[in-house]
Design goal:
There is one protein chain. 5% of the residues lie in helices and 22% in strands. The protein has 81 residues and is mostly beta strands. The chain has one domain. A three-stranded antiparallel beta sheet has the order 1-2-3, with no helix packed on it. The protein is globular, with a radius of gyration of 14 Å.
Length: 81
C-alpha cells in the first residue's frame, strides 16, 4: 500500500483486500485487492446488513446517513465483476 505523506490515514486489512482510509474525509483513499478472477462466483448478498467497521470509532467512518436516498452502491470499495 502506498503511504499518504502528511495525510492522517489508517490501514484496514481484510481477508482479500485492504483499505487505506483518510480519516478527515471518512472515505477510502486507496484500496488493494488480491484475487483470482477465474475463480469468481456469484453470491446472493440480499439480507446482508451493512455496518461500520468495529476497528474505528463511528465518527471516523461514513455511515448509512450519507448513502440514504441515493443510488450509490454503499460499501463497495472495489469492483466485484
Amino acid at each position: 500500500m502506498p503511504a499518504l505523506d502528511g495525510v492522517e490515514s489508517v490501514l484496514l486489512p481484510y481477508t482479500h483486500f485492504s483499505v487505506l482510509l483518510r480519516l478527515e474525509k471518512r472515505l477510502a483513499a486507496v484500496t488493494a485487492l488480491g484475487m483470482d478472477g477465474n475463480k469468481l462466483i456469484d453470491l446472493d448478498r440480499s439480507g446482508i446488513e451493512w455496518r461500520l467497521d468495529p476497528r474505528l470509532r463511528p465518527e471516523q467512518q461514513t455511515g448509512a446517513m450519507v448513502y440514504a436516498r441515493n443510488d450509490i452502491d454503499r460499501g463497495h470499495l472495489i469492483r466485484r465483476a
